[in-house]
Structure formats: structure tokens, C-alpha cells
Structure of DNA polymerase I:
Amino acid sequence: MTQSDAPHLVLVDGSGFIFRAFHALPPMTSPHGVPVNAVYGFTNMLARLLREHVGTHLAVVFDAGRHTFRSDIYPQYKAHRPEPPEDLRPQFGLIRDATQAFNVPGIELQGWEADDLIASYATAVRKMGGTCTIISSDKDLMQLIGPGVCMLDPIKQTPIGLPEVEKKFGVLPEKVVDVQALMGDSTDNVPGVPGIGPKTASALINEFGTLEAVLAAAPEMKKSKRRDMLIEHADAARLSRQLVELACDVPLPMPVEELGVRELDKPVLADWLEDMGFGSVLKRLGMGHPSGAHAHRAAHAMVQASVKGAAAPDAAPAAAGPSEAATAAMAAAYGPYETVRTAEALQKWVSAAQEAGLCAVDTETDGLDPLHANMVGLSLATAPGKACYVPLRHEGTLEEPAGEQLTADAALDIMRPLLTDESVLKVFQNAKFDLLVFDRAGLDFSTIGPVDDTMLISYAQSAGLHGQGMDELSTLHLGHSPISYDSVTGTGRNRIPFAQVPVGRATQYAAEDADVTLRLWHVLHPTLRTNQALALYEQIERPLSPVLAAMEKAGIAVDRAELGRLSEDFAARMAVMEKDIYETAGREFNVGSPRQLGEILFDEMGLKGGKRGKAGAWSTDSSVLQDLADQGHALPEKVLAWRQLAKLKSTYTDALLRQTTTEDRVHTSFQMAITTTGRLSSNEPNLQNIPIRTEEGGRIRQAFIAPKGKKLVSADYSQIELRLLADVANIPALREAFALGQDIHARTASEVFGVPLEGMDALTRRRAKAINFGIIYGISAFGLGRQLGIPAGEARSYIDAYFARYPGIRDYMERMREEARLHGYVLTPFGRRCYVPGIQEKSAARRQYAERQAINAPLQGGAADIIKRAMVRLPRALKDAGLSARMLLQVHDELLFEADEAEAEAVAALAREVMEAAATLSVPLVVETGIGRNWAEAH
């Protein structure tokens, strides 16, 4: 047989997929009222496999029954497994029907498990000089991986090879059965050796080589409980090896030669798919749409997801087609949930999660800062309605003792194989928080994966439409109001720490969180594709989460002494300013009191333009004071200056001193799902609002420093929103200016005001700059006039001249207003939906504000998408380049790195290269870099 004639056999683990699909997909029914969620998942998988596989031969392998040769040598083998769920039983036959409809051989043999048949076919093909791909994520099949045999996860479509096996078991495939024999398997009732977990088992096999060698060495080991268990349970370990080792010599029901890939019988397949109501599969296979009575029944059998509160037609994210949108049919009851108190009970949940290939995880903590909070408990959900809570640090009372609890370390040891299992998808709500909680507890968050985040799945397709908190999403998409945190812990002075919540009550609250998260995933994940947000989520939002977690964990060094000096200086200057304010006002008063200031301005000084609030007090917010200052009144102008300094002192110098950790670093928290445009925000402390152009802002930046032997590297996109405007509005003159590297504001001034570029005065350029940036934010003639200190009429003439020279910009603005009115949202150049809820407001002021949002959102959101794309790529780029630098901060268009002095130049060059390549526009992206001992110097 030549190399080209060698068969490539693709084997589908049909039995394994049935259970995984059943637990992973929500309830669905066919037009005949029969449960079909597992059938639907199997059908989709088989259709994709036939479209994409590279094999020459193909078969689906099933279990023929429960009784096998293993039952004869150990009657308890799998005996504890419950009967299949009622909704799953009718689907076994339907999945065999699906295999037949697709004209694929279905193979089973009484007395043997599907895994044994797969092992025997793989062995036979390898002997023929061919190769075998096993479509399964079953850990028991991993012992077969080696030359000529590989595995492919059927749901995530990720390969499973030697690295994945070694990561899961700590050994190569040929040693997997020895590790399994020692650790046992509670899922299949394989006894193993009590007290021997995955890490210990792999360590023993790596040290001694084989199971028999371990057992032979046990009597000579140092006295310990582990030694005693190995001696006492040696026979159980040998029996376990017999149970877990796959048979490779089973008589093949069909010769390999008869498994060649067959042509589809399209009429037969189409009839079956139509009968099942799988219209979407028909469509994907290019075989038409369901019609007639079948289609009518299918449309009524499936439940469409809905989103409430749309601001305008099409304002809500689109639901998927009937079959996919059945994810909304979550009929399972919410609870009761299980309290897990022992290692054995937790292991059962972990095994169930691994079997399902999908679970939701949530943590409960004693604080809101994940870098300092302790885990009080954790919850796990494996299917809608199936969830548990593991209390770890509950204190209990005399009336309600906490009862038996696992230690955090013990629970983490049991959870670690699940959390790090590449074949199991872990779903979180706000994953970044939980990743950092696990990291603090002792599990490096970078080893946890793969991860999905329901908050970000929702945010990627509904930014600005509603909040992204779990309670709100649950009410919106599931029609269920979860137990509130306040109802469990109390409010105000009566609030108790979560560790003091009775375990029973904590279980219902915390397990429900995991349950709701899993249900939300089932509802929202399919809509990523229908709302064209899948790439945005998969390529930007999801991979950004661990990047931001690493940045938060790293923090940034600060100079405490400099912060102290700044705080004292600001206090002294404020005292001087207060005396000046008193003289202007004619008396002393509390400058920080809005009520007292309002009385002085409007009652005593009689200034015009005051507005009273609902409580009757005069309003003295910044807009009121700015209006008065623009009219030439001295007191409001001086109070504004005092307020700015007071804010810098309280928000930064004082707050940073409080928030600095023992290693003299501050750790901000990045909020990923707050803004309408996709921009990140930060808090505790907010490092994105430090004034850029003021002397005080510069001095605050000086307090952010590089440790000894390090430098800070700043990389900042130059005029990125203007470049996006030139691109999306298709303005030839602006495109040319950016392409030639010209001063864009001088070029604008030349184009609009008809003055030559050479010798342009600073005032003319400043006016053009104010228009350029003002247009992005929908500035009015009044606003531009105030900014430039000119009458509104003159400012209007500037804006008119601007639009006359750049009519494409006016067209772009009107197009965005119309899109927002029509759909309720606008799109960034990268497909992010930015919802504009106020676009249909009757109030002209509110509607015009929404229109300004619609104009700016694609530009600000596009800039956010670009820098996020760069942030996702930079950690890998730095590692591949052999650079040890780490990213510390993102401030809108700027990234800040900490690098070894010797590597600073290389880091700056690499950051520029990656950031400028993050997107391809019709104008070049330009990144400016700087290096310094502190942030001000680098920026």
C-alpha cells in the first residue's frame, strides 16, 4: 500500500457525544413533541464533519448496552450510574437514525464498549500504515494518542495531542492507564487507591515508571498514609488498570475497507432533517428550507429568545432562528441545590462537569477587591437546574452552625483538574474577577481555560442597551429574578459579611448564580453569530479578560514621598485660594458646600441664571459655574479652580496614598462592560481621568515611577479618532494629509480658511484644531464659540465653512443619526453595536445629545476596538521577542509598559509595530512612544 493509499479513518465517539450534547444544550423538541437537543447537537456536528473532515473513511461508534466484559470482572463497574434522563432516552434511537440519514456507518457490538471498538479500529488502521482521528474529548481515549492516532474535541474543534494529554494527566499517553489505575474514576466507579489524586498519581508513575513498579516499591517508602494505602489497595489498583485499559483486539463488526466515505443521499437526508424540524441544518447544507406543515410545526415547537426594552425597530439584538433560539426554553426548576461538604461529593460534581464538557463557575468572597479578597465559597453548575455550592470559610452561629466544610486548599486541589482541563468550557459572569480570586487562592489564572464570560457575550452585542449585570440579564433573557445579595446579607448597618450567612441560605443564593450564568450562556452565545458579534467577542473581548487581569495584578509603582509632597502642596494652595474666595464673596463660608455657595451667588450677590433643584437649593454644578464665569464673574471662576485642585487632591494624591500596597504599587480595576462604545474604564483608583494638559496633572503623573533598573514606556495612538473620521467619512483631503504625514490641524485650517500652510499663525491653527476635535463630539456653534472665546455667530460661520469644504463629514454625521433612528444603534468600523437609547426622545435636548452620541460612537468605539486588538496581541509578541516587559495601564489611546532599562528601546519599537498593525485603514495608524523614569517623562 502506498502512502497515498493509506486510509485516514475518522471515528466519532457517538455514545460520548450523546451525553455531552444533552447536558450542554438546553431542552428542545421536534415538531412531533419529542426531545431532540442531543440529536440536534449530533446532527450539527456530523454535518460540519462531513463538510470539513479530511478523512477517507468514516464511522460513528456506539455503546451496544451496559453489560460488558468489565461488568463480569467487577460487577460494581458503572453500576452506580443512574438511568439516563427521561428526555434523553428517546434520543438514542434518533441519533442512530441521524447516522443512517447521513449515510455514515454506525458500529456497535454487544459486550464491548464504544471505547474498545474505537481502540481496536485505531490499532487496525495503524497496522495498515494509515492514520486515525478520534472525534471525542473522552479522557479514557487519550491513552490511544500516539503516532498515527490523534483526537479532536467535537464541540470546540480543538485538537488533543501529546501536549494536551501530558497537561491533563502529567504523563504521556502510554502511561495514562497507570495513572488512572492509581487515582481511580468516581464517574465509572473505578476504585483506584484512596487518597491518591491526579498529581500524586502522575508523580509516582514518573518516578517509578509503571503501576507494578510503584506497588513493588510501596513497602520501602517512608511511612505515611499514602504508603499504607498503596499496600492495602494494591489489588484494587491492579483491578482498576484492567478496567481502564482499552481492548485493542475486539473483532471488528465491519472491515476498515467498508468504511469509506459515502455520498450523501440528499433526498433521504432532506426528508429526515425536515421531519426533525432542523431547518437551519438544511439551509447550511444548501438543501433548501423547511416547508409546508413541517415548517409550520417547527416554528411553533421552538422558542425564540427575546430582548425587552428596544428603543426603536430592530433596536434589540436579533434572536437566532427557531432551532438555535430554543436555548431560551429553560424549563428546569431553579433549585433545590446541593451543599457540597466533602471531597467525595465535590469530586462527583467535578466528574459530572468533565463528562458534560461544560460548566458554570462562580466564587463568593469576603471583599470586592479580587487581589485581596478571600474565597468564602464556590459554586458549580453542570446543566440548567443542576448546581451546587461548596462552603469554605463560613463561620456559623450557635443557632445555625456552619457544619462540615472543605478547606479552600482541599477544594482547589479537587477543582484544579477541572479548571485547567482544556476539554471543558468554564463559563463565568465577569470572568476577570473570578480568575483573580482563584489566582489569589493559589491557582495561576493563566492556567485556567477555556473560559467564556456571559457579561462580555452580552456586552459584545448590546453595549448601551441595558446593564450587563447578572441579575439584569437574568430578568431580561430568562424571565427570572435571582435571589438578591441584599436579601441574603442585609443592608446598611445590618449587613453581615457573606461568611456569616447561614450555609443553607448561601447555597440557594450562590448555586443559583452559577445556574443562572449557565442558562444565560445557552441563551446568549448562539446570538453572537446571528448578531454578527462572534468575531468581536472571540477575537477581542474574551481574550482581553486575562490580559487585563495580568495588568491589574501587576499594578504600577508610585513614589509615596512625592504623593505626600503633592498632597501638602495642594492643601496649601487651596488654603490661599480660599482666602481669595472669601475676599471676593465678602465673607467666609464653606467653599465645598454647594448650598452655601448658591446662597452667596444668587441670594446675596444677585447673579442671574440660577436654577433651583427639587429641594429648593440653588444648583452650583460645574456647568452653572462655567456659565457665570464666561459672563465675567470672578467668584465662580475662582471656585472652579479651587474645585479642580480639591478633586485632584482627594481623587489622586490622598486616594493613591491610601490605595498603595505594601510593595508601593497601586492596582486599578478595569471595567470591561460599562461604556456604550466599548471603551475601558477604570476605578479604585481611576487612572484615566488625570488631566493631561495641566501642570497639576503632569505632577501627578510624575509620582508614577519605574522601579530601580526599569523604565516606563508609553505608546500612544496619534489622533486616532480623526484618522477614523477620515477613513469612514471618506474625506480625500484628510486622507491625503494623514498619508503625507502633514500637520492635520494646519491642513484643515488651510482647506477651510484658505490660508497657506507656510507661515500659518498659531491662532488659525488652534481654531482648526478646535473644529476638528469638536466635530467628532458634535459640537455646537455656542460650544465652539465659548471654547474659542468668539461670538456664536462667528463660530457658526467656521462650522459652515468646514462642512462646505468637507461635505463628506456632514453626510457621515447625518448617516449616523439616521442609522441610530432606524436601528437604535450605530456600528463601529469593526462591527461593534453601540446602542443609543435616547435617539427617539421627545425632548429636543435629550434627543440632540443622543445624536451627538451616535456621531461619536463609531469613532470612539472604533478607537477602542483597535487598541483592544493591540492589547490582545502584545503579551504574546513580547514573549516571542524574548522581552520581559509587562503592560501596566491602558488610558484610552495610550498603553504604558514597565521594561528593563536595557530592553526599553526594543519594547517601544515592538509596541509601535504591533499597535500600528492592529487594523488596516485607508490612512496610516501612527503610534508615538516615549521612555522615562516616570509616567510624565515617558508621556
